[in-house]
Amino acid sequence: MMDFGFVLSKSSTVDLNKVDLSMYRQLEKLSPDVRTCMACGSCSATCTAAPYSGMSVRKVILGLQRGNDVSAMLSNCMLCGKCTMVCPRGINTRNLILNLCRIHETGGRNDR
Amino acid sequence: MRPNVVIIGGGIAGMEAAKQLLYLGYSPILIEKTARLGGHVADWYRLFPDMTPASEVIENLKKDIQNANVFLETGVQFINRLRDTYNVMLTNGVSINCHAILFATGYDLFDARKKEEYGYGVYNHVVTNRDLELWFGGNKDVRIPERPKSVGFVHCVGSRDMKAGNMQCSKVCCMTAIKQAIEIKEKFPESEVYCFYMDLRLFGKKYEDFYISAQRDHGVHFIRGRVSEVGENIDGTLQVKAEDTLNGKPLKVSLDMLVLMAGMLCGEKTRELADGVRMDVDTDGFFKSRDNIYNVTESSRNGIFFAGACTGTKTVPETVSEARAAVLSIHNYLQQK
Asked: What ipTM describes this predicted complex?
C-alpha cells in the first residue's frame, strides 16, 4: 500500500440499523424490567466498584442497546446489590447483571 | 339585562368560558375566525391522559353553548376603548358595545418548515404531530406509509429554540410524542419507534405512567439527543442524525417516517390585535397577565381578560380550568361596576 502519510480514522457513529441487539433481546426476556431504565445514573453513582474499575450498570444497559461490548465491565461487578437498592424504577439490577453473565457464559444459549 | 361579554376565540377556552358565562346569566358573544368551533383540539384525535376522544370534548361544549351568540368566520377589526366600556368592531360589520372582553385567542402551531434541516415539506415521509393526529382521526395522508417498520419522533421542534425565536418549552409535546409513539406501536406492533429528546418533561397527572408504559409495554426507544439533520435515501427512507449524548457518540438511523413535535407560539394575528388596544406582551411573546402568580386571567387593562394558551403554553385541562377562573374574574369585575 502506498503511504500517503496519513490514515483514515474509523467513524465512531453508531448506526442503529446495523447494531447487533441479540444480547439485549435475550436480556429483555430474562429481565424485562431492563426496558424501564431511564439512565438516571443512581446505580453507577452508588457502585462500589465504579470509581476503581469503570463499572456502570447504566452504561452496561445503554451499551447493550447500542451494540457495545460490555463483557469487561461485567467482570468488575462484585454483585453487592447496592445498585438494586437505589434504582428508582425498581429494576433488579443485581439480577440483571447475573442474567447477563449467564448469557455471556452460555454464548447466548440461555439453557440453564 | 346582564352586560355583554365578548369572547375572542372559539377554541376550548372560549367555549368553556361561554358556557360558564351562560350559567351565570350573562350573554356571551363568541367570535371565531374559522368556520368551526373547537380550535386546535378539534384537529386532535385522542387526548392524554385517559385517551378521551377530542371530538367528545368539543361536542359536549357545543351542546352547552347552544344559547350563546356565536359568530363564525368572523374576525375583530379593531377594539375601541370608551369611557367604561369597549366597542368591538367585527369584520362582518357588526359593532358590539361590551363591558368585558375575554381573549381566548390561543396559540399558533410552529411552522415546521422553518426548521429546514428536518425536511418538512421537502421529504416525502416527514409529518407533524398535528398531521399524525388528523391521520389517527381518519384523514388520508400519503406521507404516512402503509406499514412503517420504523418511526421517529423529534421533540422540541420550534420549542426551546432561540434561533427559531421561540424560547419556551411547549410543555405538551413530550407527553404528546409518547402518547403518539404508543398509538403507533398499537397500530404497528412490529415497528421500531424512536423518540429523540433533549429532556423529557413529563410533569402532569399520569404522564410518567405513559413514559413507563412506552418503555416497558411497547419497547419505545428513547434517545437523548436533538436531531441535527435529516436526509432522504434513494429508497425514500429517511436518514436521521443525532448525537446520542448518553453514549457520547454520533448516531444515525434510517426510518420510514418521521414525526416532528411542532411547538406552540403566540399567534402573530393575536399580537397585531393586541397592538390595537396597546396590550402588553410578556418577555416570552405571549400576552402579559397582570400578575403571573395570582392574576393570570387578568390583563393590565380594566375589562380585558385572558383564558388559555394566549398567555403561555397550556394543556387542555389547564385551559379549561383557566377559562372558568377567567369567568369568575369577569363576574367579580362586573359586580363591582
From this structure: 0.90
